[in-house]
């Protein structure tokens, strides 16, 4: 089961294959020894060598069961009768989603989508999409436990949510609420391969059709995308800092910090998004970076005493994000001067050296002219003001 993932920065992207659903999200296997099995008792397990990694379904006794991947993308464990016919469903992946909602899946109060932790890690992140448990009939994105985005209440007359775009995609939304359950689901008209709705590691919603994906919700994109977003309360020191999609995390620079910043504990499980927030809300912070380069997790921040040197893209270093603010403009200015100075000083020294050489050469020329004047005194050639003789 696969889904296409985004390439950052475009509304309409050509994407690469990545999972639609992951069974062992929090217990990865780092080699090719993983095996998915249904044992003789009807238990659905993932094994790695002889070690049991995770149990997806545990039966209450010995039963006859089999697993099947259906055409709609649902992975189902079925209980069988003695004659091999299907008696019922024991477990299904549609009730245990990761970050992607397929047609026919139910997004409810307890059945939510959870983002990945970073662009290249599907481990559980800090954004969650689900139905509002307060009975408002709307979808909600939470960042940690805080409301990040609301869809607006379900509109029965138009069968949609005010801030959840669907027009032009051929998606039909539906909302069900009864005494047993409350959930959102959808169907798709165009019969694309694996249409999907995905919540990305940075809290954006994407709609997929075939090999293309479209960003439909982004609280740091243009106005077209951010309807329903909860306003971020910035400290006064940050002023009118740009929070659009291109500059969400600040100005990225490849380089080295020559002073140690404040590093947070690994157990804090911070993402790059969390690190950005910690720096943004701290008026003394002007730069931050992930401590784990491979998956862009962990956090280190620097105050105004940090010393930064930019490096070339192929040189050793890591991505440092710079944040500007009202009070921090001077530090950005000094940082710009320092970085610019490193690049400009060699050219400036070369220019000064050329000027110095010209001055030395001009001085030697003046000395030679004065000596020539002395030699010409008393000759038959009267002198002009510029020391050149004129012949009559």
Describe this structure in words.
- By secondary structure, the protein is of the alpha+beta class.
- The protein contains two helices and 26 strands.
- The protein has a six-stranded antiparallel beta sheet with strand order 22-24-23-26-21-25, with helices on both faces. The chain has a five-stranded antiparallel beta sheet with strand order 2-20-19-18-10, with no helix packed on it.
- 28% of the residues are buried.
- Mean pLDDT is 77; it is low at 1-16, 327-337 and 365-392.
Rg measurement, Å: 33 Å
How confident is the prediction overall: mean pLDDT? Answer: 77
Strand order of the largest sheet: 22-24-23-26-21-25
Report low-confidence residues grouped into runs of 5 or more. Answer: 1-16, 327-337, 365-392
The structural class is alpha+beta
Sum up the structure in keywords.
single chain, 392 residues, alpha+beta, six-stranded antiparallel β-sheet, 33% strand, disordered C terminus
